[in-house]
Amino acid sequence: MQKNERVVQNITLLAIETSCDDTSASVIKNGEILSNVVSSQSVHIKYGGVVPELASRAHQKNIIPVVNHALQISKTQLKNIDAIAYTIGPGLLGSLLVGSSFAKGLAISLNKPLISVNHLEAHVLAPLIENRNLQFPYLCLLVSGGHTQIILVNSITDFEIIGKTIDDAAGEAFDKTAKIIGLPYPGGPLIDKYSQNGNHDAFKFAIGKVPGLDLSFSGFKTSVLYFIQKQSKKDATFVQNNLSDICSSIRKTIITYLMTKLSLAVKQTGINRVSIAGGVAANSLLRNEIIKKTETENWQVFIPKLEFCTDNAAMVAFAAYAKMKIEKFSPLDEAPFASFK
Ligand SMILES: Nc1ncnc2c1ncn2[C@@H]1O[C@H](COP(=O)(O)OP(=O)(O)OP(=O)(O)O)[C@@H](O)[C@H]1O
Ligand SMILES: [Mg+2]
Predict the structure, then answer these.
(1) What is the CATH number of domain 133-303?
(2) Candidates 121, 148, 311: which one to mutate for ligand 1, based on the most atoms within 8 Å of Cβ?
């Protein structure tokens, strides 16, 4: 327990997450996740990326059924909710407004306290949901659609970014290279899927040579683009005929790069408790490579289960529950916008 941490008993909390294109609600009781409903918006697929205006409209449509479903699964009635949590940012403003307005409306009508949660803090604390014995400080490789950071997590409220991308995020690198080879958005999970039977050494791609713990993915994206353009000029069926090898080579390049930086962070900090978080933490190669480190380098590794990697309200509920223990409540007039430190 943290210093000044209050014992919070018999607390049932409802959390709402609408930062991007997933509408999600979760009920947590005394720190245990009772439900985690995620409704992903398929409306964006044909545009090859998230369209902000369509995302907020879909949240408006989804939020009541998603919250009702989360209450139903957890066998909880609205009158038994003790606090409401919501994602304050970062994210798309229109999307955030739907979740924050809904949460505030509920808090007013139920006369219950409100807790705002930073989306990235929620990702970074997600490894704790199933690993309550994870001791601070620990390292977290946060790899999502919009961020790539190596974070020293000193406590539930103290985060130190010790490395970060200077351009694209790892998730973007997956999605943008997937687009180059004609895969729909989001391409990360598809690259992972098509990699399974591929040869990861088939093709070589350049990746950012940035000193220290910082990273860069824009050169990698260009390297894939030029290679595919060149090969496709010679043979129009090149991508089609080599899809698994291309995907496997892309995946291997990104994951090896992330692992090299993470290993350097362990060396520099001397901390061997290591976690991963964010959508790219669902990548099967990254999960395997980090688990290998428990044997080869004596790392203690903490990996969230898949449903807690991509956007979900359970991680928001968990972070809010932790904030509630130190009485970090939020005013009703807090604006839905937040950066990470
Ligand atoms: N198996 C996978 N392999 C690689 N990438 C994946 C996999 N599964 C999901 N992703 C990627 O994860 C990203 C989505 O993660 P997440 O939902 O955490 O991002 P976000 O919420 O949009 O961004 P942020 O959290 O930075 O605001 C997408 O880029 C997606 O392609
Ligand atoms: Mg996210």
Answers:
(1) 3.30.420.40
(2) 311
